Automatic annotation (TrEMBL):
Residues 278-297 are annotated as: Disordered. GO terms for cellular component: membrane. Gene3D superfamilies: Alpha-tocopherol transfer, CRAL-TRIO lipid binding domain, N-terminal domain of phosphatidylinositol transfer protein sec14p. SMART domains: CRAL_TRIO_N (SM01100), SEC14 (SM00516). It comes from Papilio machaon (Old World swallowtail butterfly). This is Alpha-tocopherol transfer protein-like. Residues 278-287 have a biased composition (Basic and acidic residues). Pfam families: CRAL_TRIO. GO terms for molecular function: phosphatidylinositol bisphosphate binding. Residues 91-257 form the CRAL-TRIO domain.
């Protein structure tokens, strides 16, 4: 088994919060690999041990739930190409989006066993040149790197600061019901992400109406984890200390450009991985029973389900 050992403090938290038992991790991974080999539509997928541990942690070590997430994740790779295809970091379009610094995990956590803090800056792109799905593709790419590298993220989850400064109607109009369904499915049923809190900053005019509509689709747990601070940065600092934030947010931990440069290089360093992973997807023509398609997963006949989180 090739899995990075956890520091003691994270090992203790993993045991208490997500049912991780280091003695049985190897057998859990083996069980998942055997299961994948037996699935006609997934048998060509051969993930690393570290990748599978991220899914186990995101499923609180329920093997059945983990299998469901893995199946859906590799299905989405097939049926949602706008998120999961053509992910060469050296592609000129992706290079431009990476250099915008739209999704930036911060360097430090509040505690040694704390969740990873990330900043999502939606208003940094030109909606006449790019689509919101392009930003989401890059955010998912960085999330996958964290799944492989960041033990705080996989064990303790993440806290996300959503900055919607400069978000106008042209950006909001790209947040369609179809796109919303795909994003919610990614986080609810596929990616092993545990969102611990969400902090919304710099809300534009008309935000309350859009936010009320969005909240209608969320489960109670997630609703309780969302804080709308607008420009009340002091309220943010009570939950995420200044010392961890970039200077542009009144913090003390470097500048956004430094973080952006770091993540551009980090994603570029994963170029071979992303290019190879492009082949790792479900073959829906071989799925037992009815194949899953865009229409069966997100069709107009479907309705929003409430998003529940752990």
């Amino acid at each position: 088994m090739t899995v990075r050992p956890l520091p003691d403090v994270l090992q203790e938290k993993a045991k208490k919060e997500i049912n991780e038992n280091h003695r049985s991790v190897e057998s859990d991974i083996s069980a998942l690999k055997t299961w994948l080999q037996k699935q006609p539509h997934l048998h060509n997928i051969n993930p690393s041990d570290q990748w599978l541990v991220a899914f186990l942690r995101g499923s609180k070590f329920s093997l059945e739930r983990c299998k469901e997430k893995l199946d859906m994740y590799y299905t989405l790779r097939s049926v949602v190409p706008e998120f999961f295809s053509n992910r060469d970091p050296l592609d000129p379009k992706l290079q431009k989006i990476l250099k915008l610094g739209s999704f930036l995990p911060l360097r430090e956590c509040k505690e040694t066993d704390g969740p990873r803090i990330c900043i999502l800056r939606i208003g940094v792109y030109d909606p006449s040149k790019y689509n919101l799905s392009d930003l989401l593709k890059v955010a998912f790419m960085i999330t996958e790197i964290m799944m492989l590298e960041d033990d705080n993220f996989t064990v303790s989850g993440e806290e996300v600061i959503v900055d919607i400064k400069n978000v106008g109607v042209n950006v909001l109009s790209q947040w369609t019901p179809a796109l919303a369904k795909k994003v919610i499915t990614c986080f609810e049923k596929a990616l092993p992400v545990r969102l611990k809190s969400n902090h919304i900053l710099n809300t534009p005019t008309g935000f309350e109406a859009a936010y009320s509509l969005f909240k209608a689709f969320l489960g109670e747990k997630l609703k309780k984890r969302i804080r709308v601070h607008n420009q009340d940065y002091e309220a943010l600092y009570k939950e995420i200390p200044k010392r961890l934030l970039p200077k542009e947010y009144g913090g003390e931990e470097g500048e956004l450009q430094e973080l952006t440069d770091y993540w551009v290089k980090k994603v570029e360093s994963y170029r071979d991985w992303f290019v190879n992973e492009d082949k790792a997807r479900s073959d829906e023509s071989k799925r037992p029973g009815k194949p899953k398609t865009t229409s069966t997963l997100f069709g107009v006949e479907g309705s929003f389900r409430q998003l529940e989180v752990d």
